[in-house]
Target: Class I SAM-dependent methyltransferase
Amino acid sequence: MKLQRVLQYAQQLLKATVEEGDTVVDATAGNGHDTLFLAQLVGDSGQVYAFDVQKSAVDTTLLRLLDHGLEHRGLVLHRGHEEVAKYVHKQVAAAIFNLGYLPGSNHDIITKPNTTIVAIQDLLKLLKIGGLIVLVIYHGHPGGKEERDAVIEYVSQLPQKYVHVLKYEFLNQQNDPPFVIALEKMKDYPIE
Ligand SMILES: C[S@@+](CC[C@H](N)C(=O)[O-])C[C@H]1O[C@@H](n2cnc3c(N)ncnc32)[C@H](O)[C@@H]1O
Model:
């Protein structure tokens, strides 16, 4: 068996979790690759909520869905993922974050520790039991290490009885390779 690359692994986790009819979240829509992937998993009875703070990312994501005739499965919001609780009022089966900046776009627009953690906290509340939050953490850019460390500190202290937290990382790759953190909700609890 070949070891899966990080992005492949992230999608594999989503595929194993998401079923037709599910509500799911793409917290960092970017070019819309994950939004499309999720839209294909949820079927016509499901819904993808996609968030991005860049209008160009929202437009690209919407176009990608339109190109595949799947626009009815996605709600693409020009809002930050820290507002997820304001827009999503259903139980969520899975959420994906690709942290960092959008390649080919403005490298100064990056995800930030505080807003990322607020979104994770709120998604943990919205998540159904057995649901998954997948974080792909890019940390080679300015600001990336601060976000990586803050996110790791936050997820590491989540009580194991309620949330299982996994890290999937290659240890001998050059140039700060991205890695995956996955959170599986085991049980409801008052998450702060
Ligand atoms: C690494 S890119 C995402 C790549 C994307 N998943 C794809 O398939 O192309 C990170 C994205 O997060 C967005 N972003 C930054 N801060 C955000 C926030 N607070 N809420 C939502 N998106 C944010 C950026 O605009 C950028 O498009």
Observations:
- The longest helix spans residues 113-126.
- The CA atoms of residues 36 and 68 lie 8 Å apart.
